[in-house]
Design goal:
HTH_DNAJC9, single chain, J_domain-containing_protein, DNJC9 protein, heat shock protein binding
C-alpha cells in the first residue's frame, strides 16, 4: 500500500509538483483515495516466474557480477565465510568450494587482503555451516511439499494465499477488539448515566 501511494504520487504530474515544491503529500487527493488492487497492478508490471529466477541464477553464477559481489562481501565481512555465504545472491552450500576458490585466487593475485577469519577457518566451523545449510534445505523442501509448490504460478499463488490469510487474521483481530471494547463502551455509558441520576 505504501509503495502504491508513492507510485501514485510520483506518477501524477500535479501531485509530484506539489511534493517537489513543498515536500508534503496531499493525503485527501483522489489519486491516493483510489481503491486499487496493488498486488495485481505490480504483478502486471513485474511478472516473475520460477523460470525467470532459474535463468537469472544461471547467468549470475560464475559471472563478473558474482565475482565482484563475492569480493565485496569478503572485504565487508573481513573473511567471515558464514556471513559471505549468507550475503552472496543465489549461493547455497554446494557453491561454497567454488566461492572459496574465487576468494583464494583473488588473495593470491593481491586483489584481496588475507584475513585470518578466512585463511584459518576451522574444519568444525565449515562442517557446522554445511549441516545448518542442509537442515534448512530439508525444511524448505518439506514446506514446499506441504504447500504443494512446484509449478510456474506457485509463487504467485502462495503470495495471494498469504495475503488472504493476513486479511483474515486482521478481520479476526478487529472482530475481537470490537467484541471486547464495543461491549465495554456500552457498559461504561450505562454506569455514567446511573451516576448522573444519583447526583
Amino acid at each position: 500500500q505504501i509503495l502504491g501511494k508513492v507510485y501514485a504520487v510520483l506518477s501524477d504530474a500535479k501531485q509530484r509538483a506539489v511534493y517537489d515544491e513543498t515536500g508534503t503529500v496531499d493525503e485527501d487527493s483522489e489519486v491516493l483515495r483510489e481503491d486499487r488492487d496493488w498486488l495485481e497492478y505490480w504483478q502486471l508490471l513485474f511478472k516473475l516466474t520460477v523460470k525467470d529466477i532459474e535463468d537469472f541464477q544461471k547467468s549470475y553464477k560464475n559471472s563478473a557480477e558474482e565475482l565482484a559481489d563475492v569480493k565485496a562481501a569478503y572485504l565487508n565481512f573481513k573473511g567471515d565465510m558464514d556471513r559471505i555465504m549468507e550475503s552472496v545472491m543465489c549461493a547455497d552450500y554446494t557453491d561454497e568450494p567454488r566461492i572459496r576458490e574465487m576468494i583464494e585466487r583473488a588473495i593470491e593475485s593481491g586483489e584481496l587482503p588475507s584475513y585470518k577469519a578466512f585463511v584459518q577457518e576451522s574444519k568444525k566451523k565449515m562442517m557446522s555451516r554445511r549441516r545448518r545449510a542442509e537442515k534448512e534445505a530439508k525444511e524448505a523442501k518439506k514446506t514446499k511439499d506441504e504447500l504443494g509448490l512446484g509449478g510456474e504460478n506457485d509463487l504467485q499463488a502462495l503470495i495471494q494465499r498469504r495475503s488472504k490469510d493476513r486479511e483474515r487474521e486482521m478481520d479476526d483481530f478487529l472482530a475481537q477488539l470490537e467484541a471486547k471494547y464495543g461491549n465495554n463502551a456500552k457498559k461504561g455509558g450505562k454506569k455514567t448515566a446511573a451516576k448522573k441520576r444519583k447526583t
